[in-house]
Amino acid sequence: MKLQAVQAFLQTHESGSISEAAKKMGKPRVMVSNWIGSLEDEWGVTLFDRTGHKPVLTHEGDKLLMICRSLLTTTEMLERKVASLHLPDEESLAFGVDHGVEKGFIWDVLQEIERQHPAVNITMKEGFDDELLSGVESGELDFVYTGFNQLDVTRFTCQQIGHYDFVAVCHREHPLSNHDELEITDMNSHRQISARLHPSTDASKIRLSDSFWQVSDYQSALALVKRGIGWTVCPKSEAIEGIRSGELVILNHPQAVYRWPVGLLWRIDHQPGPVMQDLIHSISENYVDQ
Questions:
Q1: According to its UniProt record, which protein family does this protein belong to (predicted)?
Q2: Distance, CA of 197 to CA of 127 (rounded, Å)
Q3: Domain with 122 in it: what CATH number?
Q4: What is the pTM of this model?
Q5: What are phi and psi of 43, to 5 degrees?
């Protein structure tokens, strides 16, 4: 079994096509297809249903998906750990934390890092995913703990550690709360409040309403929503108390609740040192899906 074949299996599932997987891996399409076929022959299973326009995971493929992810993650961690054994501790480390992810455990993790590496200088920056990704690209940040989707694997190393939920909410007395089944056109006519105010944000990709307000954080967006000013999309963990109390209502739309991958990523040309290795490992070990 080749690890590249396992990577081809995962990349095909995540990108939705063998051609796109081949492009992201920088390999010929026929090679990626053959790798997947060799896994199916070796394991005696069919990983994808190829009868449709796009390959779809079979029941067997779905059962093997998380194990394959774990295999690649463990292999990558081993390779990085071996490489870092001969490196001295970094003098400084800068990492980013997405506004939307769970960070309550981060303080305990940093306390342990301080015990293991007392001489290192650490900078932690909070922001949104696009802002933090810009920091990694520029070299300002060594790595980030964030939500992500459709990353360029030729430029970034990514280690997925779980998921977190987003919800679209409004106040219980807002007109949208009374709809039995919402359409996008219904949402267009009511003010959208976005908590993604950053120069690297392309507002056109997240704007659904004619009336569009932007603020700098989820708490500000929810404060406006609770006053009936509009609706917003935010991490479920930020809105859960208002949802439980009945003050906030999840919009009755099929995509009002969705899951987003969360993980750790850094530039592919950046070799993690001992401190970064330990911090990445600790965040991975302590993360729990929200």
A1: Belongs to the LysR transcriptional regulatory family.
A2: 10
A3: 3.40.190.10
A4: 0.65
A5: -90, -15
